[in-house]
């Protein structure tokens, strides 16, 4: 049972942990941070502090698959901003999303766990097979075909609820059980990692962290002492920022912002790999409505006619009615649309396997993979069918796609050669970093 009918998640404020000392400080309570903090705190003799910029947001709705995957919800834990103008894309900016919530991306993503299982596939699968793509029963099996379509497993439990790394590794029960040696400080951002004087210790050593409230209107600065290590695991975008703010990163960039250089590491914030997407969105001309699907799922057909039938059809087709039905189906039976993930299928392939037109498999990989170079055994394309627009222009999404029935296919480049960068916008921790994805920068 969720709070308020049980004990609340034991979040700590910056004031709660100020001036305390810990063996380990984990910067970022995201997908990886929850796992790291959980493993470290298994030993009751080891003290751990987690600094997470978002809240725990431990709510029932955050576990409903289709609801929690809506990254446009203001209370869902997702944030977004535009990247820097991309020089090789005509100066275009693209919107990208990041998580600001305990559990990180595993709280807002599509819950895809890329393992296939034998099952009956829908028409998309049959269409893919007709084009020559084999069905992959287990995408992670050593002898799995390199090109094919597979049904995806999702990170949900037996009750069809989302299971994030917070739920799996740093749940409310675990956090309460380990409250004597584990503090989860939410709504806080790292300001700086403080290092010892190299003249005294021979080399700089992280011995303190300073942090602030995520709310930039609150200017208080807090300190926590570190006995062993500071572990930065805030993802590809957020991890470089605290490192560079602390003086670890490209020397020239740090000096531009008057940040004292502790260690010149050009690789920090460099070599960013972004898997760009090409979206094809189509409006649905299908006459099969959700109402029809609901009737089929309940196993009933109406024998009424005339005015009565039209009135019932109008009531049944109401978004409020549909929503209410789906809500109670999920609440009572954990079934229906709310229990479904956003993405259930995917198609992996190698571009070298396609014909010149790119619409059919032309060749199959040799069964003797030892005769092929390693790069020939790795899929470089993925095609994902989605029941949404997948448009990165929110204005266009609300103006056009949000008003029509639409489905999309996302073509993803899995092995891009282009590289981007993450750089500081300023020396202030509240300012979001500048992101240059570098799409098409590799000729």
From TrEMBL:
Binding site for FAD: 101, 109-112
Ranges in coiled-coil conformation: none
Annotated InterPro entries: FAD/NAD-bd_sf, GMC_OxRdtase, GMC_OxRdtase_N
GO molecular function: flavin adenine dinucleotide binding; oxidoreductase activity, acting on CH-OH group of donors
Keywords for the protein's UniProt record, in alphabetical order: FAD, Flavoprotein
Domain Glucose-methanol-choline oxidoreductase N-terminal: residue ranges: 123-272
Pfam hit, one: NAD_binding_8
Cofactor: FAD
Protein family according to the UniProt entry: Belongs to the GMC oxidoreductase family.
Protein name (database record): Glucose-methanol-choline oxidoreductase N-terminal domain-containing protein
């Amino acid at each position: 049972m969720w709070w308020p009918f049980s004990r609340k998640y034991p979040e700590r404020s910056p004031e709660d942990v100020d001036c305390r000392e810990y063996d380990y400080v984990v910067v970022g309570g995201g997908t990886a941070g929850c796992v790291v903090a959980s493993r470290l705190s298994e030993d009751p003799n080891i003290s751990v502090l987690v600094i997470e910029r978002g809240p725990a947001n431990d709510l029932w709705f955050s576990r409903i698959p289709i609801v929690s995957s809506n990254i446009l919800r203001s209370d869902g834990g997702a944030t977004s901003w535009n990247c820097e103008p991309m020089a090789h894309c005509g100066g275009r900016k693209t919107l990208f999303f990041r998580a600001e919530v305990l559990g990180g991306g595993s709280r807002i993503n599509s819950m895809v766990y890329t393992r296939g299982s034998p099952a009956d596939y829908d028409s998309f699968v049959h269409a893919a097979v007709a084009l020559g793509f084999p069905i992959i029963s287990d995408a992670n099996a050593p002898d799995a075909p390199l090109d094919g379509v597979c049904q995806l497993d999702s990170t949900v439990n037996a009750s069809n609820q989302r299971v994030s790394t917070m739920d799996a590794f740093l749940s409310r029960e675990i956090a309460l059980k380990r409250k004597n040696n584990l503090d989860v400080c939410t709504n806080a951002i790292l300001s700086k990692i403080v290092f010892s004087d190299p003249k005294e210790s021979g080399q700089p050593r992280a011995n303190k962290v300073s942090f602030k409230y995520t709310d930039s209107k609150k200017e208080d600065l807090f300190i926590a002492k570190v006995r062993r290590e500071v572990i930065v695991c805030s993802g590809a975008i957020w991890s470089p920022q605290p490192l560079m703010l602390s003086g670890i990163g490209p020397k020239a960039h740090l000096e531009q912002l008057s940040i004292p250089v502790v260690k010149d590491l050009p690789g920090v914030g460099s070599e960013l790999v972004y898997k760009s997407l090409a979206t094809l969105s189509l409006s649905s001309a299908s006459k099969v409505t959700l109402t029809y699907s609901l009737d089929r799922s309940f196993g009933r057909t109406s024998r009424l006619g005339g005015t009565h039938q039209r009135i019932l059809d109008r009531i049944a087709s109401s978004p409020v009615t549909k929503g209410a039905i789906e809500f109670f189906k999920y609440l009572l039976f954990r079934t229906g649309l709310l229990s479904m993930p956003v993405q259930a299928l995917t198609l992996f392939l190698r571009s070298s396997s396609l014909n010149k037109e790119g619409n059919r498999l032309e060749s199959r990989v040799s069964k003797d993979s030892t005769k092929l170079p390693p790069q020939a055994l790795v899929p470089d394309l993925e095609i994902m069918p989605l029941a949404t627009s997948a448009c990165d222009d929110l204005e266009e999404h609300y103006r056009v796609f949000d008003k029509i029935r639409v489905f999309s296919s996302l073509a993803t480049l899995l092995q891009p050669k282009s590289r981007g960068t993450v750089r500081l916008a300023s020396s202030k921790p509240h300012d979001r970093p500048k992101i240059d994805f570098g799409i098409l920068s590799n000729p």
